[in-house]
Amino acid sequence: MKEKEQKRSYSTECYNEMKLRLPSLSVNEGMARAAVAAFCAQLDPTPSELADIKCAVSEAVTNCIVHAYRDTVGIIYISVKLCRGGLVRIEIKDKGCGIEDVELARTPLYTTDSAGERSGMGFTVMESFCDKVRVFSGCKKGTTVTLFKFVKGKE
Amino acid sequence: MQKTNRNCSLFISEDGGSEELLVVLKGEIDHHSAVWVRTEIDEKIMRYRPSRTVMDLSGISFMDSSGIGLIMGRHTRMQAVGGLLVVREPNERIMKIFELAGLTRIVSVERESRKRRGRA
């Protein structure tokens, strides 16, 4: 147990995987986070760990709907990998408009919304609730967000 | 008035007249439900122009950053009509998100019962 925690490798072997694809309709946000949480339940996570995962997934999926496929409906590809050492790797991919400046987008409170209805906290929430967040984006090609979360579980 | 939209339900008391508008939310607040909740609350704020709007979050089981936007937006709207927004009984999870955004410095948060701690 202790040894595993000390190493904390982000590239351990995957032993179970789930894939999900959904159209970017806001009604699917609840479904996406619930499905990911249900799949992760086999790790026996604490309620807090599960809530972290649900919240981070919700943020990433919302970004696909609100930003990537802004005026259109596209497909959101979600893959969840359970890896050795209690690592959960969640990849949320879209083929939408892409992020021009990833670093700027990740800045807390940065939002493109001028109406004051969005907080600009999406990436900040993902970063706070996960151990690592990786973002790849290409203009007009799409964005892939990978969330890395170590689940210690109950006990 | 009670309304439900999939995983989120909303109760707005309309008996308080222009003094206080009480909004009781239950279920999950995400981008999907926030859009709907926002429209419902704003319509009542504009109609009654209350001096205080209370958003009771004790029945909220899930909230992401869309909730911050929802609350900040209502805060701004209440300021516009010369009133105050109060958030009541957010659980520990919700507090965690509020603190990330520094929301507790802007909006007044009422927390009376701390019994929910641990169940959050």
Beta-strand proportion of chain B:
25-35%
Given helix and strand content, the structural type of chain B is alpha/beta
Distance between the termini of chain B: 27 Å
Q: What global shape of chain A is seen? A: globular
Task: Assign the CATH topology of chain B.
Answer: Transcription Regulator spoIIAA
Strand order of the largest sheet of chain B: 1-2-3-4-5-6
In CATH, what is the homologous superfamily of chain B? STAS domain
Order of helices and strands of chain A: HEHHEEHHEE
Query: How confident overall, as mean pLDDT of chain A?
Result: 94
Number of strands of chain A: 5
Number of helices of chain B: 3
The CA-CA distance between the termini of chain A, in Å, is 11 Å
How big a fraction of the residues of chain A is strand?
Answer: 25-35%
Order of helices and strands of chain B: EEEHEHEHE
Describe the structure in your own words.
- The complex is a heterodimer of chains A (155) and B (120).
- Chain A is an alpha+beta fold and 155 residues long.
- Chain A has one domain: Heat Shock Protein 90 (2-Layer Sandwich).
- Chain A is built from 5 helices and 5 strands.
- In chain A, strands 1-2-3-5-4 form a 5-stranded antiparallel beta sheet, with helices on one face.
- In chain A, strand 4 (132-138) and strand 5 form a beta hairpin.
- Chain A is globular.
- The mean pLDDT of chain A is 94.
- Chain B has one domain: 2-Layer Sandwich (Transcription Regulator spoIIAA).
- Helices cover 36% and strands 33% of the residues of chain B.
- Chain B is built from 3 helices and 6 strands.
- A 6-stranded mixed beta sheet of chain B has the order 1-2-3-4-5-6.
- In chain B, strand 1 (2-5) and strand 2 (8-13) form a beta hairpin.
- The longest helix of chain B is centred in the first third of the chain and has 18 residues, at 31-48.
- Chain A binds chain B through residues 26-27, 29-30, 33, 47-48, 51, 54-55, 58-59, 62, 65-66, 108-109, 113, 115-119, 121-122, 124-125, 128, and chain B through 6-7, 28, 30-32, 34-35, 38, 62-66, 68-70, 72-73, 76, 93, 97, 100-101, 120.
